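QA checklist item 7 of 12: single-chain prediction sanity check.
[x] sequence parsed
[x] length recorded as 150
[x] structure emitted
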Amino acid sequence: MHATLINRNTNEHKDVKVGFSWTEFFWGFWPALFRGDWKWLIIILLVDLAFGVFTWGGGSFFFNLIFAFFYNKLYANDLLNSGFEPADDYSYNALLAKNYIAPGRRFSNANNGYTSDSQLDQLDKLKELLDQGAITQEEYDIKKKQILGL
């Protein structure tokens, strides 16, 4: 399962896995390196080295097995705490289902790429006013942008 996170300030998108991290299990610190997740890269690398040296790699394997259950959640929470938020309802529900976020946690929904039912109702009423001649095309365009958050 995947979730898409967006940082609305920088317009940066991140696709995060939700659940067990098979890549971390098989490849150790490499997924953190490719994600640019420097904090967890260093932690995983140091623990792998510390456990692997004294156990001929067995401790490193055991650590990666256990850590694979937690890595995706830790990575996603680091992103959420640094200004990212779910990009859509599917992503929000995926994060909620796996307890990545607390129930009821709110995020801004500005420019999230989808239109709510209330926005559609407002646009329909606005279009009726335009068709009736009660407002001009310019007023319609300005109000439409306000409703859509553009």
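[x] summary fact logged: Residues 117-148 form one domain.
[ ] second reviewer sign-off
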